[in-house]
Amino acid sequence: MSGLELRSHRFRLEREADWRRLEGLLGKAERQRASVLTEDELIALPLLYTAAISSLSVARATALDRNLITYLEGLAARAYFFVYGTRTRLRERLAQFFRFDWPRAVRSLWRETAVSGLILLTATLVGYVLVSQDADWYGSIMPGGMTQGRDPTASTAFLKAALYDAHGRTGLSFFAAFLFTHNAQIAIFAFALGFAFCVPTALLVAQNGLSLGALLALYASRGLGWPLGGWLFIHGVTELFATILAGAAGFRIGWAVMFPGSRSRLEAVAGAGRAAGPVMAGVVIMLVFAGLLEGIGRQLIQVDAVRWSIGGATLVVWLGYFYLPRKGLA
């Protein structure tokens, strides 16, 4: 037996019992659950893990048998993920996300959210004023696919019929689907393009506001502002809030690119991405929920006051969910 083999053999004899015990505990926990381990076994796990790491360090430093080093590396990696890694089940992870991660992430972006909301509100007012003063602005502001005949040349009866058409006979189904897709695209691109110094994000949020203002101005000019508001906001509150949050996430990324501070630009953007990631995951959920509300509002609810009530209720719910102080949220 060579000197290297002899050292490896002695090394293994001195420590192998601890390695085998650690391997047995890991196998027991992996086959079933950590809860099956006794209190003594749970206490022993980190100690055995530390011993395995120590053995691995010695094996590497003294250039012991390569197979032994490979075995210890695999054992240490398994133990690391058990001792330090997350072992929460999907249900627990989802509960953690909805209870803490998502609202905490939204709160951390409150400045960016305020800026995004202000841009949307200002653009909506500008679009409303422009079209109210000169109807020719409508064609310049509204995306072509969104109008579907809903322009200043349409009759009041046609515009009104679209708001209460439960089965899409006058094209409302297509219009609603296009509106939802349009807002979803703006939300996604507002986040994705934030790295370009926030400019595309601001423009996309502003474009959404201009379109909303132009549409409101058109219907208000025919005395249909209240019905349109009910039809839009029953689902639009959630859609617009999602767009604002997506814009906020994009602004966080763009701000990190422009002003990384003491960190490298890559580190700053990575940190901003970690903060904005849960927000965008939540935005997707909000858009799905808005789609469900849109379907209900279009097909089942025909009373303006009820539509407005649902829209107002969703606003209260979202604001309370994100911003009301409660235990566990800083």
Low-confidence stretches: 168-172
Q: What's the number of domains?
A: 2
Q: Write down the Rg.
A: 29 Å
Shape: elongated
- Describe the main β-sheet briefly: none
Calculate the mean pLDDT score and round it.
Answer: 84
Structure summary, number of beta strands: 0
Number of helix segments?
13
What's this entry about, in short?
The chain is mainly alpha-helical and 330 residues long. The chain has two domains: 3-87; 93-323, no CATH class. The protein has helices spanning 3-31, 39-61, 66-83, 90-108, 110-133, 137-141, 144-147, 156-163, 172-192, 199-220, 225-258, 265-299, 304-323.
Model description:
The structure is a single chain. With 330 residues, the protein is mainly alpha-helical. The protein has two domains: 3-87; 93-323, no CATH class. The chain has helices at 3-31, 39-61, 66-83, 90-108, 110-133, 137-141, 144-147, 156-163, 172-192, 199-220, 225-258, 265-299, 304-323. Helix 1 packs antiparallel against helix 2. The chain is elongated and about 95 Å long. The relative contact order is 0.10. Residues 168-172 have low confidence and may be disordered.
Key phrases:
mainly alpha, 2 domains, 330 residues, 13 helices
Give the secondary structure arrangement, pairings included.
Blueprint: H1 3-31, H2 39-61, H3 66-83, H4 90-108, H5 110-133, H6 137-141, H7 144-147, H8 156-163, H9 172-192, H10 199-220, H11 225-258, H12 265-299, H13 304-323
Helix pairs in contact: 1-2, 1-3, 2-3, 4-12, 5-10, 5-11, 9-10, 9-11, 9-12, 10-11, 11-12, 11-13
